[in-house]
Every structure is written in structure tokens, then in C-alpha cells.
Amino acid sequence: AQSVTQPDIHITVSEGASLELRCNYSYGATPYLFWYVQSPGQGLQLLLKYFSGDTLVQGIKGFEAEFKRSQSSFNLRKPSVHWSDAAEYFCAVAGNFGNEKLTFGTGTRLTIIP
Amino acid sequence: EAGVVQSPRYKIIEKKQPVAFWCNPISGHNTLYWYRQNLGQGPELLIRYENEEAVDDSQLPKDRFSAERLKGVDSTLKIQPAELGDSAVYLCASSLVTAGEYEQYFGPGTRLTVT
User: Fold this and answer.
1) Nearest CA distance, A110 vs chain B (angstrom)
2) What is the pLDDT of residues B20-75, one digit of tens each?
3) What is the distance between the alpha carbons of residues A92 and A101, in angstroms, rounded to a whole number?
């Protein structure tokens, strides 16, 4: 069965500092990987996705993620966070080019301090 | 382009009462999903539709939950009777295929509180 682990429940960083959110997945076939962000009271917004090709993918809002098959990881990074990045971040995996259910991790809550 | 629309945004009911949620997907999206998000958790799929057909309902508690997608567009998710453990956010999503790749777009969700 597929699964996603986000080992950090809550992360606090200073505004302007760099950020890395960890994600490990378990999937028996070719994984299709996603990062979503959820602000309070809002739905999920897709930040970026990995389907194939270059293992470093760029997303919206200055985020990037790197797929490492050997480590079963898909970590999200941002070089300099802004106060508006405070939100809940979810990593997810799906099969069949994304046309199946997304299996989500439990999320990482990001707090930004001035 | 309008996003996925859900209503109501919030619903408070007493246990044993029925409740229904409505979703209008993005125009042209054939695949529609209902997820449930419990507090502090990631969303979990309840049911997935391809047009009018429910192709994955393995996680839908069929004793009390039902869903329909008439005409392959709008969808309704119903709970009857509701239990305290059904308190959660119910998210609807629809997906678009571009060059063989699917992206799921989520609505704002309906927050259900069962008292």
C-alpha cells in the first residue's frame, strides 16, 4: 500500500531564512509526487509536481522540490521564506499519472517569525 | 476560470441528522473526487468518479454515506445518519489531464460539525 511520511509536524523559521520540508514516500510502482499548501479555511493549492524527467522541479511562489528515488524522498525547499508562506504543507503520492487517489502525508505546519 | 465550487462552507448538525454537500467541478473536468480531512490529518479519498461512474468507492462507508454525480457534472455527497466521528472537512476536487498528466484542483471544502 502506498504511504507518505512527513516527519516534521511543526516547523518554525525566521522570515528570510531558508526552508526545507521533508517527505518520504512508499509506492510500489512509478510514483507521481505532489506538494500542496493549505492556508486556514482554504482548500489545497498545488505548489508543484513531479512526474518524470529532471528530478529538481520548480513550482509556484518560489518553491522547488527534489526527487531522490534512492532515498524515496521528495523534499520541498525555498531559499528565503516570506511571512505569507505560513500555512500547512502536504506531500502526496499517486499512481497512473496522477489519475488516482492522492495519498497524503499528515502535513507540516509552518510558522514564520519576524 | 472559476474554481471548484462547494456548498455549504460550514454546517452544524446534531447526530443522527442527515446532511448533504454539493460540488460543482471546474468546467471540462471529467474526474471528480471527494476527500475527507480530519483535524490534523491529510485528506483521504472517499470516492472518485469518471464522468457518471464511481470508479473507486472502496473507502466510502456505504452504510451511511452515499454519493451521486448525475450527468457527469455536479456531485452530491450525503451522510445519513451523521455520527460524532463524521466531524471533518469534506473536500471536493476535479482533475484535468494535460499531456497525459493529471492535476487535482481542490475546492474550499465544507466544514461539518456534528454535535
Assistant:
1) 13
2) 999 999 998 989 999 999 999 999 999 999 889 999 999 999 999 999 998 889 99
3) 10
Please give the DSSP secondary-structure letter assigned to residue A70.
G
Nearest CA in chain B to A105: B42
- Residues of A with Cβ-Cβ distance to B26 under 8 angstroms: none
Nearest-CA distance from B85 to chain A in Å? 18
Q: For residue range B64-87, list pLDDT tens digits in order.
A: 999 999 888 999 999 999 999 999
Cα–Cα distance for residue pair A26/B59, rounded to 1 Å:
20
Distance (Å) from the C-alpha of residue B105 to the closest C-alpha of chain A? Answer: 7
Residues of A in contact with B34 (CB under 8 A): none
Confidence check: pLDDT of A21 > 70: yes
Question: Is residue B89 classed exposed, middle or buried when 0-12, 13-18 and 19+ CB atoms within 10 A define those classes?
Answer: buried
